[in-house]
Amino acid sequence: MTATAHAASAPARTDPKVVLEAKGVIMRFGGLVAVDDVDMVVREGEIVGLIGPNGAGKTTFFNCLTGMYKPTEGTVTFEGSVLPPKPRAVVKAGMARTFQNIRLFGNMTALENVMVGRYCRTSAMALTSIVRGPKFRHEEAATRQRAQELLDFVGLGRTTEHLARNLPYGDQRRLEIARALATDPKLLLLDEPTAGMNPKETQETMDLIFKIRDSGLAVVVIEHDMRFIFTLCDRVLCLVRGALLVEGSPATVQSDPRVIEAYIGTGPDAPAPTPTAERPAVSLSKEEQA
Amino acid sequence: MNTSTLPNGARGTTAVTVSRPSMQWYLTLAGVVLLIVGSLLSWCYDEGVLGNVSLNVNPGPIQVFMIVIAVLTLFFLLLRGGLFPVLDRLLDSARALRALGATATAFMVAVVIVIALQTSGLANADPGVFVALVGAALITWGSWSLASDPTVDPVSVHMRGWVDILVIVALLAIVLFGAAYALGQEDGTVFVLFLSVLGGVSLALARSGLFSWIRVIAQRHRQVLMLGAFAVAFLFPFTQNGSDANMSIATQVIIFATTALGLNIVVGLAGLLDLGYIAFLGAGAYVGATLSYSAFATIHWKPPFIVVMIIGACVSATLGLIIGTPTLRVSGDYLAIVTLAFGEIFRLAMFNLDGNNGPNLTRGPNGIPAIPDLEFFGFNFGDTHDIFGIPINRFGNYYFFLLVVAAIIILVFTRLNNSRIGRGWVAIREDEKAAEAMGVNTFGLKLFAFAGGAFLAGLAGTVKAHQDVSVTPDQYVFLESAFLLAAIVLGGMGTVAGVLIGATILKLLPEKLRFVSDYRLLIFGLLLVLIMRFRPEGLVASHRRQLEFHEEDTELAEHVEHAHLEATAGSEGTA
Fold this sequence. Notes:
The complex is a heterodimer.
Chain A: H1 2-9, E1 18-29, E2 32-43, E3 47-51, H2 58-65, E4 73-78, E5 81-82, H3 87-93, E6 95-97, H4 110-117, H5 126-131, H6 134-154, H7 169-181, E7 187-191, H8 199-214, E8 218-222, H9 226-232, E9 235-240, E10 243-248, H10 250-255, H11 257-264, H12 279-289
Parallel strand pairs in A: 3-8, 3-9, 6-7, 7-8
Antiparallel strand pairs in A: 1-2, 1-4, 4-5, 9-10
Helix pairs in contact in A: 4-6, 4-7, 6-7
Chain B: H1 2-19, H2 23-40, H3 61-81, H4 85-90, H5 93-118, H6 127-144, H7 161-184, H8 188-208, H9 210-220, H10 222-235, H11 244-269, H12 278-290, H13 305-327, H14 333-352, E1 375-376, E2 379-380, E3 385-387, E4 390-392, H15 394-417, H16 420-430, H17 432-437, H18 442-468, H19 478-491, H20 496-512, H21 520-534, H22 543-549, H23 554-574
Antiparallel strand pairs in B: 1-2, 3-4
Helix pairs in contact in B: 2-3, 2-6, 3-5, 3-8, 5-6, 5-8, 7-10, 11-15, 11-18, 11-19, 11-20, 12-13, 12-14, 12-18, 13-18, 15-18, 16-18, 19-20
C-alpha cells in the first residue's frame, strides 16, 4: 500500500484526469489466486508499464480489466463509471487491447481487420445494409477511410489488401494495434507488443507508442524488455505472484532490490552469475568435437 | 513490373512463328481437318449406338462434340499462327492445344471401345471413326512438342470496355445453350460423354489462361455479369419449348440453390456448421401447406400467398431463434451435433403431429397432399401460357417466380456480406474471442446469421410446397442437409456464383444419371474428395479463400490484390 503513495506523487505536475481506476482486483481460479488485490490508476496521456516475472498475473489482470474475465472481487472504473465485465461494453466505453499471442482475423485483409475494429462505433443494421441508403454508404465510406488512415498511422498503408496472416510478424503486431485504435479508445492496453521483435522493430514500436500517446491516449504496456519499459513508461508497476510489489517511476522500480530479487531470485550467492561467459566455450567445444 | 516487360518478349516469339509456322503446326492443322472430316462421316452401321452416329454429313451429338473440339483447336492454331495478336498475349495456345488433343484422343478411343462393345466387335465400325481417331492422334502428336508461349498477366491488359462485355455476353450465351443442350440429351451415355468432353474442354481453356482472363473481366464488370447471368436464367425456359421434365429439374435446382445460399450465410460467412438446415426449408413448406387451399390442410385460414410466405419465413426464423439461443453458446463440433439432432427432431415431430400423438397439424407420415397451384390476381401457376409463341408450362411459371425469390436472396446475401455485419460474421469465423474483444456483438450476430438463414429457407419452403404438390416428412431427411452443405463446399464457401454452380451440379447430375442411381452417393463422394484434393477453395473461390489455400503463391496474392484494388477503384469511379 506504500505503492499508492508513490503513484500519487509521480504525476503530480498537473495531475490530469484519471481514466482508469482498478480497485482491489482479485481473481481466483479455484484455490489459485492469480491476481491478488491489485490497485491501478491510469491518468490521461500517461504510459504505464506492467512488469513481472512469468506467471505473475499480468495478462490475467489485463483480462480482468477488459472484461474477458469477471474478477472475483474488486471493481474497474473507467472515467468515473464502473465497467461491467463484458468485453463489448469495455470496448464501447473506450478501452481497447492487443493480445500477447497475436489474434488477428487471419483470413481477412489488413484493411478488413481494422474495419472490424470500427464495428462498435458504427450502427448499420441488417435492413440498412440491405437497402443501402445514403446514410449507410456514408458510414461505410467513413469506416473505410478511417481504417486506411489508421493503417497509414501505424505504417501499414501499403499492405492494405494483404491477408493478415501473410504479413510479417512485426507488421501483424502493428496491425493489431491499428485494429485496437479503430475502436476509438481513450486507453490502449498492449500485451507484450515487442515480443519476438528485433531491436529495430522494438524501436519502431516505441516510436509508435509515443505517437499514440501524443495523440491523446493513455497506454498500459505489459513487457519483459526492461530497457523498452524503462525508456517508454512514465510509471511502472511490478506484479509478483499476483500481488503488486512496487509502483513508481522507472528509476525507482529499476533500482528497487525487491524487483531484482523477484526476477533473478535470492540464492546464497545473491547476484546470479550471467551464463553468457560460459556459452561460447560450450559451442566451441562442440565444434571441436565435430 | 516483371510481367509488364513480358509482352514484348511474347510478341517477339509469336512474330517468328508467324513468318514460318513450324512442322508441328501443319501436323496439328492436318489433324483438325481429319477430325472434322471423320466426324462428318458415318462412325457405325448400327443406328442404336451412341445416339445414332450412322449418318454421313449429318453428325450425331457425339460427332458434334468432336467438331466443336476441332473448331476450338483450329482457333488456338490460328491464334498461334498470329491471327489475333492481342489474344495471343493473353492465352497460352500450346497448353490448350495439348489438352484439346489429349481430350480428343481419349474421347475417340473411348468411342471406338464403346462401338466394339455395344456392337459385336470392331467390324461394325465405319471408316469415319478411324479417320477421326487418326485426326485426334495427329493433333496430340503435333501439339505435344509445340513450345509454350509466354503469356501476360490478364490484370495488366486493358481492352476496350465493349470487348470485355462482348466476352461476357458470349460466355453467358454459351452457358445458356450448353445447358439447354445438355438437358436435351435423353441418352445417359451421351450425357456422360458430353460431361467428359465438357471437362476436357474446360481443362484446355483453363490451361490456356482463358478463365483467369475472364475472372479479371468479371471483376471489372460485376454488374454486367450479374445482370447477364440473371438474363440467361430468365431466358432459359424459352429454350425448352415447354418440356416438363427439364423445367421440373430447373425449378428444383433453383429451390435447392436458394436454400444453399441461405445456408451459405450460416456456414460460409459466420462459420457455424449447421447440419440440420433442411428443417428450416421444411418448416416453411409445412406452413405453406397447412395454410394452402389443399383439402387436407389442417388450418382453415387462407391468407394470400404473400402473407403465407412471410409467415413461413417468420416461423422458420423463430425456430432458428429457439434452436439458436441455447446452442450458439457451444461452437464447432458441438454445434454441428446439436443442429444435426435438431434436423431429426423436426422430421420426427412432423411425423408424429398426426392427431394420435399430438395435435393433428401435419397428418403425420401421410403428409399434406394435393396442394393446389398458386394463383396471383387470376394468374394460375398451373396453366400453360404462350409467350412469343413459346409455351411456358406450370414449372416455367414456378421457375420465374422462384427466380425472383432467388434474386432477392442473392441481393440480401451480397449486401450483407459487404457490410459491417458481414465483416463481423467473418471475424467471428476467424477468431471469436478476438472479435468479442474488438467490440463485435458475437452472440447477437451468430443468432442473426442463424435466424436470417432460417428466414430465407422458410421463404423458399413455402413456394416449394406448392411446386411439389405434397409435403411429407421424408422429404426433409438429413441427407438433404448434407447435400446442401456439399453444394456449398463444392462450389466455394462464401460465394454466390460458386454455390449456384455447386447446387446446379448436385441437383442436375442425379436427374441425368438415373441409370447409375445406385452409385449416386459414391460418385458424389468421389467428386467431393477430388475437389478437396485439387481445388480446396471450391470451384469458384472468393478472393479471401483463394489466398487462404494458396498462401505460398505470392504471385497469386499480388494478382488478387491488384484485381481487387482495381475493382474497388472501378466501382468508386462509376459510383
